[in-house]
Task: structure prediction
Amino acid sequence: MKELLNQAVDDAVFKGAEYADARYVQLREQKVSTRNLSPQNISSDYSAGVGIRVLVDGAWGFACSRTINPDAMRQAASRAVQIAQASAKVQREKIELTPLKPAVAQYQTKVNQDPWQVPLQEKLDLLRDAEEAMRRVEGVTITSGNMFFQSEHKFFVNSEGSSIEQTLTRSQADISVTAVANGNAQTRSYPARHGGGASAGYEFVESLNLADHSPRIAQQAVALLSAKPCPTGLMTIVLGGRMVMLQLHESCGHPIELDRVLGSEISHYGSSFLTTDKLGHYRYGSKLVNIVTDPTLLHGMGGFAYDDEGVPAQRSVLVKDGILVNYLSSRETAGIIDKTSNGSARAAGWQTMPIVRMTNLNLEPGEGSLEDLIAGVDHGIYMEVPKSWSIDDRRINFQFGAQIGWEIVKGKLGDLIQNPTYAGISGQFWNNCDGIAGPEAWVLWGGSGCGKGQPAQTVSVGHGTAPARFRNIFVGVRK
Amino acid sequence: MISKDKGFEILDKVSEMAGQAAMEAVLSSRLFSVTRFANSAIGQNADTDDTFLQVRVALGQKVGQARTNTLDDAGLAQVVKEATEIAKLSAEDAGFPGFPAAPPPTPLDAFVPATANCSPDDRSLMVKQAVEITRSLDVKAYGVIETGTRELAIANSSGIRAYHADTTAVMHLVAVKDEGISSRNFASRDVSAIDPAALAQMAGERCLFSRQPVVLPPGQYDVILEEEAVKDILMHLGALAFGALSLQEKRSFLAGHMGKRVMGSNVTIWDDALAANGFGFPFDMEGMPKQKVTIIENGVAKGVVYDTRTARTDGIESTGHAIPPIWYASGPMPINLFMAGGDETRESLIAGTKRGVLINRFHYSRPIDPSAAIVTGITREGTFLIKDGQIVSGLKNLRYIQSYPEALRNVTGLTKTTKLQNEYEFNATVPAIKVTGFNITGSSGD
Result:
C-alpha cells in the first residue's frame, strides 16, 4: 500500500503539484439495534479507497478512487491536479501550509476485547436484557438499544516524507425508553441518545452496565408524563456533565474551528462569532472556564496519534482563565494567525478532504461535587441529558433542551420537570459560569455524530466535562 | 458511472451467491463534484464517490444486512457471506414483512448529460461569473456548486428488478458585507439552468440592504417565509408526522386527527417522486414503485406514507417510501414533498404586510416537542423588517419557537410560483407563504 500511495504522490508532483498527500482508509463498521425487543438494522459496513490531495499554484484539488491499483492511482492523481488547476483560476491568495517535520510512525488503539470477535448473539443478549428491564416498568411504550463499532485503518503519505499508519477502534452503545400517553411522549436515554462512546474495544460497552440503568430511566420516562412543565424566567441552572458536553460542543467547539472563523463554512454550517481580532483578549467565559483540545487522551472518541495531515496529536489550550487564546487549526489555516497547526485536520473517510474538526475538546474540571453546585442554589433547575439543540449560524444564540430536569429549592433537588429548556448568548452564558465540579465528577464522554463540511462529513468526537452551574439564565419558552 | 447493464450484472452475481435464501441487493452510486468558495475564491474543490452495495439476506424471519464498496467478485462474496452470517445469528424479527414483489417502476427521464459532464473548469467559470458580480457590488461571495450523477439499482428474490440514473446540480451563493448577509440558491437536474450571475446579483443586492441589521423584540409577528424556510417546515413535518410509523405509535400530531382539519384550508401537501420538477427516484429503497400520496388536502389530514413493514401493520400496500434500512429505525418518510401555491407574488405578500418580517432561511431547527411538532430554530442569511408594505431594514437573526402545524393553520397567502429546495436526500417544491402570529422568542442581537 505504501508503495502505491507514494507512487500516487510522485505522479501528482510530476504533473505539477507543489505538495501532495495520499490517504488510504479502510473503514469497517457494525451497527446492532433492537427496538421493542426485535432486532433491527443489524448491519456491517465496509468501505475502502484512496484520497489524493494536491496543491497546484497554491490551490487545492482532491480526487479519490475506490479501485486501488497503479492505474487507478495515476488517474486519481491526474484528476486531482486537473481540479487544482481549475481552482487556481479563481484564487485570491495562494494557500501556504505551515511547516511540519515529516513523521514515520505506527499507532493502534488499545483494545482489550476486539468487538469483531464478540459474537453477535452476545451483543443482542446484552441489549435485550437492557430492553426487558425497561419494559418491566408499567407505562413504557417504546424501548430500543444501539451498539456501534468502528475500525478505521489508514495509511498517510505525503510529498514531504511522512508515512503514518494508524488503526483506530471505537465502540459505542446506548439505550432509550419512551412513554406515551394523551398525546405526550417522553424519552429517556442512557448514557445519551447515540451518545456513549470511546476509542476502545467491547470492554467499553460492558463497562456501561446498560441493564443496571434500565429501571431508572424507564421509571423516569413514565414519571415525566405527569411532571411539572418547565417554568419560565431568569434563574440559576445546574447542568449535568452530558448537558455541559452539548453546551461545549455547540457554543465553543464549532465556533472555535479556524476554517469556520475564516469563512469556509458560511454557506452551509455557518461562520463564527469568535473572529480572529478577538484572539488573545476576548473574554469568552468566567475565570473558571478553561478549554483544551487534547487528542492525546487516546481513549476519547477524538483520540489519535496523528491527524489526517500527519500532524502529531497534541494538547492545546484554547480558552485560558476565560480568555480566547487559540483555535482548532489545520496546516492551511494556522499560518493565517501566525501559529502552527494543533493537529485538528480530520477527514471522515478516503473520499473527503480533511477539514478542521474537534478531537477531544474538554472543559477542565474545577472543584467540589454536583451536590456542592446544587447546594449553592436557592431557586433553579438541574437538567441532564440532551434532548434538543439549536444554535445560530455564528454560534451566538442557542436554545437547548434536556430530557429531564428537577427543581432546585433551597439547595436541594425537588419536583421533576418535563421538557426543560434554556436559552442564551454564548459569550454571556459562559461568563455566567460560577461553578464547575472537580476531577472526581469529570468524565470524557464520546459521540459519533458530529457533522460538518460539503460533502457532509461525520466524525467521532470526545468531550471531557463535569457538571457546572450558571447564573441568570433564561429558562423555558419565552412567549 | 456503473451503468444499468453492469449494475444488474453485479446484482445477478449477488443473487447467485445468495443461493436459495431470500435476498435483496441495492447498488447505489453517487459520483459528484463539489466546488466550495469563500472570500470570493475557490477553497475546497473535490471529486467524491459515494458508492455502496447493500445486501439483505432473510432466513425466515431472521434478517442480516451488510454493505461494501468493493464490487469485485471477492467483495461481493464477502458481503453476501457477512449478510448471511448476520441473519443466521440474528434473533427472529416478527415484524419483518419479507421482500416485496412489485411491477417495474415507471421510468423517469431525469438524466442531463450537461450535468454529468460538468468539468472542474466549468464550475470554476460559474464561480468566476458569480464573483465578478459580487465584486462589482463590493460584497464577498461564499458558497458551493455541486454537480453529479446518481444511480440506484435494486433486485430481490421476489422478482423486483429496478434501475434509475439521474443528475442533480445545486448552487448556493451567500453574499457578505460587514454585518450584511444574504443568500440565494438554485437546484435543477440541468446545470445549465443555473444562472450564477443572477444568483449573485440578487444575493448581493439584498446583502447590501441588510448591512446594519437592527434587533427586533420578541413577540408574535406576521412573517413571510421564503421557499427555503417553507422547506424546513415540510422537512420536519415529514420526519415527525407524515410517515406511518409515528402515526401507528401515536407519537404524531396527526394521531387521532386523520380525516380532520389540521391546517388552513389553503394548505395542500403531497409527496410525488415522479414529478418532472423534483429530485425523486421512481422507486424506494425496497424497490417499490413510488406512489403519489396526498397528505394534507385543503387543510384536512388525508394520508401518510408507508413502507412494506408499516403497510403490513395496517393491512394495505406500501406507497413506496422506504428509507435505507441501515438508518436508525425512523420508519417511512416522504422525501419529495410538494405544497400547492396560491395566487400571490412575493412582492404582493410584502405589499400587503403592515408590520412583519421577511425570512429567507431557517437554521439548525430542532423539535423541542416532537409529538406536537413544536420546533425551535433561528433565521439566517437575510431577515428583514417590513413596515407599511415595504422592506425597511435588515434584522439580526431571530430565534423562534413555533408549532409548525399551527403555522400552517395561520397561512394567509401563498405565492403562485413554487421552487425546488434540496437538503441532503430531502426535496420540497414549495411557494413562499405568509403566516400570522409567528412566535419570535429572541435574537442573536440580544
